[in-house]
């Protein structure tokens, strides 16, 4: 009788162990499948955008920043040093700039006086480009990137030589996306990396000192867009990266350039409701919002990358 009970007990224990093991294996495989699905989903849907604000207008601090804060975004603010502290009406003061910097916003250089660099003397270039870096350093800000006023100077060797003395990167305009390997402008260039110069010493069309952005406000002016049309164009620009970024690899990034955020109907101004709507779209679409400080350059292989 005892032998039968032991046999039955052994059979029950073995059955229990087998059922438990099978359950664990099934549960584990489900967890692995879920994690894999999330990883693939997140990777394939990854979209990136960089936000820029040029010139240092007061509305960027009083109107745009609260909306950026609302969605948890950081941006790059390219400031013109001699426009600040009441030197030009409608622009930030150093208290504003320092508050942005303390908050983790990226503060970078946009010259001393917003001069067109393409027709400036060498002395003027040193002042506009070099002194603006020193100006920011006096306020505890180490500027590592530069933005050309009026989209001028990026194709001038003399200008680029001075810029390269003081900055790691420089941004211009005129393109919906910038290509991290500088290889996407097939109608302008046949490059396969971001080397500054060609073999015969000419400037390459695309390099780390001609990173391209899309001017949101200039696009309105050039195309006579109303808010609805400009929003539609914004959607096209931020989503245009999808044709270049595949399987989680980021090859192209839209850089959106704003100037003034206000409900006033003036040039280079984005309506506040429109700006909020655009930021909400990025937030709800799970875009990764970066600053120019998040970009770096591989000097060995000559390409841009996200840090």
- Number of helical elements: 8
Order of helices and strands: HEHEHEHEHEEEHHEEEEHEEE
Which class do the helix and strand fractions yield? alpha/beta
Instruction: Give the end-to-end Cα distance, rounded to a whole number of Å.
Output: 73 Å
Q: Which ranges are low-confidence, i.e. pLDDT below 50, for 5 or more consecutive residues?
A: 9-14, 17-44
Descriptive account of the structure:
The chain starts with a helix and ends with a strand. It has eight helices and 14 strands. The longest helix has 43 residues, at 2-44. Helix 3 links the parallel strand 2 (76-79) and strand 3. The protein has helices at 2-44, 58-71, 94-102, 122-137, 157-166, 216-223, 227-239, 272-284; strands at 48-55, 76-79, 106-109, 145-147, 169-171, 178-179, 214-215, 252-253, 255-258, 260-261, 269-270, 288-290, 295-298, 303-306. Strands 1, 2, 3, 7, 9 and 12 form a six-stranded parallel beta sheet that branches. The protein has a two-stranded parallel ribbon with strand order 4-5. A two-stranded antiparallel sheet has the order 6-8.
Question: What's the quick description here?
Answer:
By secondary structure, the protein is of the alpha/beta class. Helix content is 41%, strand content 15%.
Itemize the secondary structure elements and their pairings.
Layout: H1 2-44, E1 48-55, H2 58-71, E2 76-79, H3 94-102, E3 106-109, H4 122-137, E4 145-147, H5 157-166, E5 169-171, E6 178-179, E7 214-215, H6 216-223, H7 227-239, E8 252-253, E9 255-258, E10 260-261, E11 269-270, H8 272-284, E12 288-290, E13 295-298, E14 303-306
């Amino acid at each position: 009788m005892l032998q039968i009970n032991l046999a039955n007990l052994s059979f029950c224990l073995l059955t229990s162990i087998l059922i438990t093991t099978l359950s664990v294996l099934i549960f584990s495989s489900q967890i692995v499948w879920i994690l894999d699905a999330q990883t693939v989903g997140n990777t394939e849907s990854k979209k990136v955008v960089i936000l820029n604000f040029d010139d240092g207008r007061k509305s960027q601090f009083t109107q745009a920043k609260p909306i950026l804060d609302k969605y948890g975004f950081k941006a790059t603010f390219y400031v013109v040093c001699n426009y600040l502290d009441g030197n030009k009406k409608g622009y930030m003061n150093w208290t504003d700039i320092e508050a942005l910097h303390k908050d983790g916003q990226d503060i970078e250089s946009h010259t001393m006086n917003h001069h067109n660099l393409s027709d400036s003397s060498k002395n003027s270039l040193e002042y506009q480009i070099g002194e603006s870096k020193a100006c920011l350093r006096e306020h505890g800000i180490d500027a590592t990137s530069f933005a050309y006023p009026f989209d001028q100077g990026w194709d001038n060797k003399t200008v680029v030589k001075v810029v390269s003395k003081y900055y790691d990167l420089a941004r211009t305009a005129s393109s919906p996306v910038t290509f991290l390997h500088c290889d996407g402008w097939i109608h302008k260039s046949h490059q396969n990396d971001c080397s500054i110069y060609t073999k015969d010493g000419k400037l390459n069309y695309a390099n780390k000192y001609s990173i391209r952005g899309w001017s949101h406000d200039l696009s309105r002016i050039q195309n006579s867009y109303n808010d609805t049309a400009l929003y539609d164009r914004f959607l096209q620009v931020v989503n245009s990266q999808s044709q270049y970024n595949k399987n989680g690899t980021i090859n192209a990034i839209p850089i959106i350039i704003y100037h003034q955020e206000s409900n006033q109907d003036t040039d280079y101004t984005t309506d506040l409701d429109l700006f909020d709507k655009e930021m909400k779209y990025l937030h709800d679409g799970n875009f990764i919002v970066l600053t120019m400080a998040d970009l770096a350059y591989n000097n060995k292989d000559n390409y841009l990358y996200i840090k």
